[in-house]
Structure formats: structure tokens, C-alpha cells
Amino acid sequence: MGPGMDVPEDYFFINASATSVMLRQKILKKCREDIYAWLNHENGQVAIYDAVNPLAGGRRSLAKEFQKHDVQVRRA
Amino acid sequence: MIQFVILLSLTDFQTLFLESYVTDQKILEENARSVKISSPDVRSTYAFPLDSTNWSQFVGMDPDEAAKLYLKRIDMKIPHFETMDESDLNYIKMINAGESIQYNNVSFGYLSHRIVFYLMNLHIKSRQTFFARAGTSSQQDSYKLDAPLGDDGRAYAKKMSDTLLAHREAERAALIAAGGNPAPLKPLTVWTSTRKRTVETSDYLKDLGYRVRQRSQMSQLNPGVCEKLSETAIRRLYADEVTKHELDPYHHRYPRAEVRLTSHFAQLSCC
Predict the structure, then answer these.
(1) Are the C-beta atoms of residues B91 and B84 closer than 8 Å to each other?
(2) C-alpha A19, offset from chain centre
(3) Nearest to B6 among A7, A53, A56 (CB)
(4) Collapsing DSSP states into helix, strand and coil, what is residue B92?
(5) 10-residue averages of pLDDT along chain B (271 residues)
(6) How far is B70 from chain A (nearest CA, A)?
(7) Residue B79 with chain A: CB contacts under 8 Å
(8) Among B5, B52, B82, whose Cβ lies nearest the Cβ of A48?
(9) pTM of the predicted model as reported, rounded to 2 decimal places
(10) Min Cα–Cα distance to chain A from B14, Å
């Protein structure tokens, strides 16, 4: 977003606009990439992904993504 | 109601979910008020763009009102919540801040077990910790001698204790004046090491009826051959050791000196 910029008004709300949702996804993806870099390339042992993950489906796909990432990392 | 965090850990990329499941309205309000509303982040005018709340809106607000607004927002933002019940995922569910704990162990490793242990011993209630030096001893002190307090040391112990007690009372008075809870002060427990000078520094408080506990983990470590030497002297006498120390300060130890392997501050936060 760049310095001095604030997130859109509806950023944290359920019925956010499509652009806000996209921005949210983009930021979350960046956070997860930070975690991968930390664990894989910076000798990190523990990382905390602090977020509200209220739905079972979302949590499963998150666990799956982390798992998948592990497999990719090991093959590399 | 909930707060939710995930922790992803270890070399083998284990995923562990943590859920704090709260049904006690009091805990929620207390948490909203003390952690969120009175946090330094809120007092500043800067709003963290990635945090779940636009903090700047709470600045200058009445704490009760701000807590209410904060909780209302959580309700609005997380209207559908499914508590963790996935038998195929690793998770720890802490209920009402430690009243009970459930966990689902699919593939817990060492760190996950440590985290369970830590959470079982965690206090989230607010508390204060004060750090104070021990008084000085009567004679030329050394690690081996473990000398008792001198007159100056005893005078210091009294002054320090009186200052601490006055500070606690003043804080309470200020809180009540600001419309806070006129509850009695939280009990004060004194931790000392097992060294004579630290135990004797706490005697004054002990005589006043405060609980004093000795903890060997807080004791001074044996400084080894470098005891009482100035940095220049150490550099001159043990140049090799200084080089080794600078290369690896967390693992190196000076001849006959002790090192501490794990942090005992973890204990402080959980006991």
C-alpha cells in the first residue's frame, strides 16, 4: 500500500467491496510468504500467523497450503 | 466468543492452531479494556493498517464505552464462527483463559507439547513486576564468600521497600481518584535468589508479613576467573577467551564460569 496510506473503510468488514477483498487477499498472501521465507531461509523455528480463521473450511485449506508448501520446499 | 491465532512451527512445517474460546463475558470485557483499549497503541494516533481495528477511533474515548464498541465490532466482523473440531488438524483450544484446555494431537512434536505446557501454566490476569537490586554486603564480597548485608545494605533494603510500598499505594490512590476499582491491592510476593545478600534484602518485607520465596534459578552465576576484573584486565589476561566470546556470546563461557542454558523468565511469566 505504501507509506502514509490507510486501508479502505470497509477493509475489516464481512461485506467488503471486491477491491477491498482483493487487497486483503494480497496482504494475507504476503504475510504467508514472509513466514515461508523466515522458516526456510532465515533459520526460523517458529512463526505465528495471527488471524481470525473462523470457518473450518478456511482452516483446512490453510493447513493444506502449509503442508503443500513443505513438500515443495523439501523437493527443492 | 473467540480470539484466534495460528502458530506454524518447526523445521518440519507442523501447523498448530490455537484457539482461545471464551464464554465468560467478564473475561472478554476485561480483555477488551485492558489489552486493547489501554494499550499504548491506542493512545498514539497511529493506526496500524494490518491490525483488525482502526485504533485511532478509540483514542480519548471512555474506557467502558470503548470496550463496548470494540466487542460490538468483533460480533459484527465474525458473525459466523465455527469452533475448532477438526479431528484431522493439530489444535489447542484454551477455554475461558485456562479454565480448561482441549487439544487434538494428530502429530504433536516437541514444541507443540511445550506450547501446551506453557499455556497450562499461563496467567493472563494483569500483574506488575518490580525489579530491585540487592543491598551491598558488609565485607569485601566474592562469589565464594556469599557475604551477608552490611549496614548500608540494610538501610538500602528499608528505603527500597518503603519506596516500593509507597509507590503501590500511590498508584492505587491515583486509580481510585480516576474512577477506578477501589479493590484492595493485589498481594505482593517477593522473589529472591538463594544468595545471602538478596535474602537479607527481603527480610524487611518479610517482617512486614509479605511472602518471600527463594529461587535458586535467580542466583548469581559463578563468574569464574574473571570475577572482579575490569574489562581491560580481562582483555589483557584472557585475550583468546574474549575473542571466542565475541564470536559466540550465547554459548561461550569464561574459564570456570557458569552459563545459563534456558531462560527462567519463562517462569516469571507463568508462575
Answers:
(1) yes
(2) 17
(3) A53
(4) strand
(5) 54 79 80 60 39 52 73 72 89 87 86 84 76 85 83 95 95 86 86 92 96 85 84 91 86 80 52 44
(6) 13
(7) 14
(8) B5
(9) 0.60
(10) 8
